[in-house]
Amino acid sequence: MDSPHNRKELAYWFALLRAPAIQTELLHRLLHEFKTPLSIFRTDSKILAELGVHKKTIDYINNPVWDKVKMDLEWNRAPDNHLITYFDENYPALLKEIHDPPLALFLSGVPEILQSLQLSIVGSRRPSPDGRRNTREFAERLAQLGLTITSGLAAGLDSDAHKGALAVDGTTIAVLGSGLKQIYPKANNKLAQLIIEKKGAVISELPPDFSPLPMNFPRRNRIISGLSLGTLVVEAAENSGSLITARFAMEQGREVFAIPGSIHNPLTRGCHELIRQGAKLTEKIDDILEEIGPLAYLAGNSGQDQQGDAKKIKELDELSKLLLDNIGSRPVSIDSLVEVTALSVPVVSAQLLQMELSGVITSMPGGKYIRV
Q1: Order of strands, sheet of 148-151, starting from the edge strand that comes earlier in the sequence
Q2: Under 8 Å CB-to-CB from 261, ≥6 apart: which residues?
Q3: What distance, in Å, lies between the first and last C-alpha atoms of the chain?
Q4: Can you tell me the distance from the alpha carbon of 271 to that of 277, in angstroms, rounded to the nearest whole number?
Q5: Cα angle 144-149-153, degrees, rounded to a multiple of 5
Q6: Measured between alpha carbons, how far is 354 from 372 in angstroms, rounded to an integer?
Q7: Other residues' Cβ atoms within 10 Å of the Cβ of residue 228
């Protein structure tokens, strides 16, 4: 199904996204059955009831809040504002794979950023100095390597993750548990605007005027993890909301990384519990790269042909070509590449990740690499 192309189609999309008392899964079923939001609004109430639609929802469908829809249409007229439906080419492929993907995303910023390879970083709203430093360092390094940093714009480590990416001119996506006109916390209004200005995006599945209600945030967390190849938890207490994001990631089959800490620090107990449950103990960037390298290759290269691979090789920079000349069908280690190229370990590591993201090499167990 195509995304809305005219004002009438768009109006019915906005109206449908405001429907109360209906789960995302049922919305998807209705669209599969009736093809367009307009067709849903024209469907007889009895048929909707037979399909399991709640009476409150049916009453709304018979009498939508058109004044609110008009507000949404006005919001959408701003150059940076977009409605990305499930059927839009910019709707992220990884997010479609989760159990209950949002029917649409309200987005301020650059829609194409949704297609980028992402790693989410989440953590405590009241972090320790070590937690803040770790978050900034990991976000900066991963952003420098070409990954988009995704988080929830919350106070504390979420904000530090966004700021870390921006500090090195990287890209970042903020996922809200409120509408885009209701930035939460309000103290992060400037940060949200900076993310948009720096070619990132602020997104929500909620209409722009929706308030930041507590029940919205756990569902928001499934989007953070669903957009990402993996989720890094920096600090989290035992009942932290960050653990909800990590558990969603596990359920979605995504990688989960956790930074350990002192047994005397309550902010590390959540991370330790995640590690016991199978999250990867993470002390350095390479711990993440070892896991997401092959995932990045699969996510970015499904269906590519040999002509495409040849084009990728041609587009490599000189350093990458030098490394590729020394990588064949037999696994080779970073140390070996450092020795034969005379490049430093950080330079080789950075280039190898970029080459993995380009799909010309893939990583193997033991930190070794082979040519694709």
Answers
A1: 81-85, 104-109, 201-204, 172-175, 148-151, 118-122, 230-233, 255-258, 280-281
A2: 130, 235, 267, 268, 271, 272
A3: 35
A4: 10
A5: 135
A6: 14
A7: 31
Q: Are 138 and 164 spatial neighbours (Cβ–Cβ below 8 Å)?
A: yes
List strand residue ranges (DSSP E) for the chain, in order.
81-85, 104-109, 118-122, 148-151, 172-175, 201-204, 230-233, 255-258, 280-281, 332-333, 361-364, 368-371
- The pTM (predicted TM-score) of the whole model is 0.82
Give the integer Cα–Cα distance in Å for 288 and 253. Answer: 16
Count CB-CB contacts under 10 A for residue 71: 16
How confident is the model over 113-155, as pLDDT tens digits? 999 999 999 999 999 999 999 999 999 999 998 899 999 999 9
DSSP 33: H
State both tokens at 148: 């988009």
8 pLDDT more than 80: yes
| CA–CA separation, 134 and 266 (whole Å) | 17
Which structural domains are found in the chain, ordered by start? 1-77 (no CATH), 111-289 (3.40.50.450), 303-371 (1.10.10.10)
Give the pair of three-digit tokens for residue 282.
């993470």
Distance between CA atoms of residues 224 and 233, nearest Å: 12
